[in-house]
Amino acid sequence: MKKISIIKIVCVIALLLGIHRCTSYKKLAPHIFLVKENTSFLNQTLTIGQPLVVEGKRGSQYYGYIYVNGEKKEGYISSRNVIAYVFDESFEKEITSFPDSYKQPLRFLHTLYPEWSYVPLSTSLDFNDTASIFQSKSLIDTDDESMIASPDIIEGQTWCRVSLNASRYFLDPRSGLNAYHALMFEKLTYNPSETLQEGKRMLEGTEMSGIEPQSKKDWAELYRHSAEVNNISMSLLITRAIQEQSGGGLGLRGGHARNNPQGPLFYNIYNIGANTSDQDGIDFAAVRNWDTREKSILYGSKYLADNYITKGQDSLYLQKFDVHNNNPGHHYYMSNIRAPYSEAKNMLRGYISNNIDHAKRILEIPIYSNMPVSNPYPISSDIKYSGTIIKEPYNTYQIADTYKNLTENVDYISIDYPTYRHIVGLNNYYGSCDIPK
Prior knowledge:
The protein is of the alpha+beta class and about 425 residues long. Among the domains are: about 20-85, Roll (SH3 type barrels); about 190-315, no CATH class. It is built from 13 helices and 19 strands. It has helices at about 1-15, 100-110, 125-135, 165-170, 195-205, 220-230, 235-245, 250-255, 280-285, 295-305, 315-320, 340-355, 400; strands at about 25-35, 40, 45, 50-60, 60-70, 70-80, 80-85, 115-125, 140, 150-155, 160, 210, 215-220, 255, 265, 360-370, 410-415, 420-425, 435. The chain has a five-stranded antiparallel beta sheet. The protein has a three-stranded antiparallel beta sheet with strand order 9-11-10. It starts with a helix and ends with a strand.
C-alpha cells in the first residue's frame, strides 16, 4: 500500500510541475500556424499574425520553430495561442488583381480574419520615385543611422529626416500586410456598429477617460457624436487623438497663439496643421477659434472628414501617403512616417478589447509600378518579421521559379492538394499557390 501511495504522489507532483514526460510526443507533418494573440516564445514576444512552423505536439503544446536573424529558434507554444493556416481556394478569386508578392500575407490575414475583404488601389506611380518624394517630406524619431538621412534635428529633440531605405520600407504596402498593421488600409467612413461603450473602453487608461472637465460630458460621447455627424470612423478619431496626445500634448492641454501669448487657450486634439511643431497646431486652432476641447474634437473631426475622408484619403495609409490621385506629397496629414503603423496597432487593440475585430471591414491596398521584390526593414538586427519567417532578410527569391533548388521545411513549407502543392515561403520568399504535381 505504501508503495502505491508513493507512486501516486510522484505522478501528482509531476503533473503539478508541468512535466511532459507522461505525455507522448507526436510528430506532425510540418505546417504553418499563426499566432492569434501576442504571446511569449523562447523569451521573445511573437505578435498577432506571426507565422511559425509546427512539426510536433505534446498534449496541448505545439512544437515549432521560427528564424530570427538567420538563426533557427525551436520551442513549445500553447495550442490556444495559434491557429492553423488553411489555404482557401475561394479566396484566391478575391485577390487575383494583386501582385504575387502581396498574396501570401493576404492569405495569412484571411485565415485570422475571414470577415475582412481586400480591394486593390492601382496607381500609376513609380515606387522608387514616390519613395524619394516622401523621403524628403517625412520625419522619424530615432538617431539610428540606418533610419535617418542625417543626424540633424528637424523638429523637437529627436525628429530627423528619414533615410531613403526607411521611406521605401514604410511606403511599401507589403510592410503593413500583417495583422498588427493591416488596419492602416481600412476605409474609415462612419461605422454605426461602433458603440459609445466601445469608445469608453478604447479611452481607458488615457488622459481622455471619463468626464471632459470643460464640457462636463464623457470624452467617449464627444468622439461618438463627432463621428456620427461628420460621417467618419469613431475608432479613427479616438486612435488619432491617442496617437497625437499621449503624454498630454499641447493640443490637449491648450496653448496660446504665437502672436498673442497672453491671450486665451486654444486646443487641437488631432494636431491638425502641426507640420513642424505643436505650436503650429495651436496657431491653426486659434485661427478657427477652437477655444474648447469639445470644439477641437467636433470641428477637427469635420476638418478630417472634409479634407481627407471625402477626398479619397479614407485610410490611415492614404492620410500619410497621398497616392490616391497620383499626385503624392501635396496633401498628407502627418510628417511622422511611422504614424499609420502605430495608429493601426492602437486601432487593432481597440477592436480586440471590444470584440469587434471580426466585424466586416474593407481594406484598400495601393499597388505601384516597378516595385522591388522586397524592401527589408533598414535595421537588420531588429525583429520585424510579423508577416513572414525570415532566415536571411536580404536574400529574396520567387518560389515558383526556385523552390526545387531549396530545402523543404527550411526554406519553404509544402501543403499537398489533389492536383497541386501550395507553397508557403519561410524566408521572405513568395510564389505561386498552384504548383502542379
